[in-house]
Automatic annotation (TrEMBL):
It comes from Dillenia turbinata. Keywords: Cholesterol biosynthesis, Cholesterol metabolism, Endoplasmic reticulum, Lipid biosynthesis, Lipid metabolism, Membrane, NADP, Oxidoreductase, Steroid biosynthesis, Steroid metabolism, Sterol biosynthesis, Sterol metabolism, Transmembrane, Transmembrane helix. It holds the Pfam family ERG4_ERG24. PANTHER family: 7-DEHYDROCHOLESTEROL REDUCTASE (PTHR21257:SF38), DELTA(14)-STEROL REDUCTASE (PTHR21257). The lineage of its organism: Eukaryota, Viridiplantae, Streptophyta, Embryophyta, Tracheophyta. GO terms for molecular function: 7-dehydrocholesterol reductase activity. It is an enzyme of class 1 (oxidoreductase). It is a multi-pass membrane protein. This is 7-dehydrocholesterol reductase.
Length: 434
């Protein structure tokens, strides 16, 4: 617990609140978007009048068709992850000296998924509106099914860990919430976090974005420009993610956060339900932006996504070349930082402090938040709820920045480099050393 950012009281309170409040919130958000005109006040009035029984009544029961959709989708993505060819990529060395190896085939899996899904609709084999019509049941099934999956991960971490990067802190709640294993696998090749985070969670973001677009077309005979802007920007963002997927395997989500409720349930349930919510709202609330405004929003969103990508590209190229590259046409400035691992080994990290990374700490979070705003703003401002994801993302990234800074402090204290973090602050370093 030495690396905990917050006090133990705040940590326990946040864990328990997320464990208990996130599942019902997913259902309430879906109900409000689909059945309450996107109005929080309308849902609040309903719950005030009907109380707990009213909430029970709106919680859809998982149905056979919901389980079937989830099972077919999950099996399809798992098969693509295992069977498609891909370049061999090594992840960062863990504190115990373990280096995970991945097969980088995410972009190919992404292309095949979207082509297959759209083709099934185009040729009349499967209508994606079925997914939208059973969305509440699907979310309900995911809530319970993913919870059971997290229990499986907890047990696996105790009895059959995949590597030395596993362990218990002795507290069941913390172990379940944060996870037991850093790199859990089934067999030698099936990486669980790649599946939950990338192939199920992020892929479902794109699949549901297309689903909402098709649903509006089926209902109205056309797709509003607001929905087009929302869908295109979301697909550009997810395409950027899979183009850069191998870089994602070096980030905090994969290289630091263990596989527990926080990461795995979040990616299996929270991502498809919350991250796609602006599009979910637009299905029944099309807005006519006009060509000029739609193009402005689209270009602004694409520019933000590009800057976010270029931030990651600069850092990745800097690390790949060991600092021997050009950033914005000149040699990059850097910090050579030493730290001591848990095994007592001294290591050195090169930290980029020029280009985008010289503007401010965690600068890459700025265009990411702005991109989320631009794919939400086509909904305009009649209701607050479509902007929940933007607000959530801002809170998440501020917390992640604090957690990452804390890890830098932890490393610097281990090696006795008091000037280390001071220099990071002076040079505007992001703090992301994973």
């Amino acid at each position: 617990m030495a690396e905990t950012v917050h006090s133990p009281l705040v940590t326990y309170a946040s864990m328990l609140s997320l464990l208990t409040l996130c599942p019902p919130f997913v259902i309430l958000l879906w109900y409000t978007m689909v059945h309450a005109d996107g109005s929080v006040l309308q849902t609040w009035d309903y719950l005030q009048k009907n109380g707990l029984q009213g909430f029970i009544n709106i919680w859809p029961k998982p149905t056979a068709i919901a389980w079937k959709i989830i099972a077919v989708y999950g099996a399809f993505e798992a098969a693509l992850q295992l069977l498609l060819p891909g370049k061999r990529v090594e992840g960062p060395i863990s504190p115990t000296g373990h280096r995970p190896v991945y097969k980088a085939n995410g972009m190919l899996a992404y292309a095949i998924t979207l082509i297959t899904y759209i083709s099934l609709w185009w040729f009349g084999i499967f209508n994606p509106t079925i997914v939208y019509d059973h969305l509440g049941e699907i979310f309900s099934a995911l809530i319970f099914g993913s919870f059971v999956f997290c229990v499986f991960l907890y047990i696996k971490g105790h009895v059959a860990p995949s590597s030395t990067d596993s362990g218990s802190c002795g507290n069941f709640i913390i172990d379940f919430y944060w996870g037991m294993e850093l790199y859990p696998r089934i067999g030698k090749d099936f990486d669980i976090k790649v599946f939950t985070n990338c192939r199920f969670g992020m892929m479902s973001w794109a699949v549901l974005a297309v689903t909402y677009c098709i649903k509006q077309y089926e209902e109205n005979g056309k797709v509003a420009d607001s929905m087009l802007v929302n869908t295109v920007l979301m697909l550009v963002y997810v395409t950027k993610f899979f183009w850069w997927e191998a870089g994602y395997w070096n980030t905090m989500d994969i290289a630091h956060d263990r596989a527990g409720f926080y990461i795995c349930w979040g990616c299996l349930v929270w991502v498809p339900s919350i991250y796609t919510s602006p599009g979910m709202y637009l299905v029944n609330h099309p807005v006519d932006l006009g060509i000029q405004l739609a193009i402005y929003i689209l270009l602004a969103g694409i520019a933000c996504i590009y800057v976010n990508y270029d931030c990651d590209r600069q850092r990745q190229e800097f690390r790949r070349s060991n600092g021997k590259c050009l950033v914005w046409g000149k040699a990059p400035s850097k910090i050579v930082a030493s730290y001591t691992t848990t095994s007592g080994e001294t290591k050195t990290s090169l930290l980029l402090t020029s280009g985008w990374w010289g503007l401010s700490r965690h600068f890459h979070y700025v265009p990411e938040i702005l991109a989320a705003f631009f794919w939400t703003v086509p909904a305009l401002f009649n209701h607050f709820l479509p902007y929940f994801y933007v607000i959530f993302l801002t809170i998440l990234l501020f917390d992640r920045a604090k957690r990452d800074d804390d890890r830098c402090r932890y490393k610097s204290s281990n090696c006795g480099c008091d000037a280390f973090l001071l220099q990071l602050n002076i040079n505007g370093f992001t703090g992301e050393t994973s």
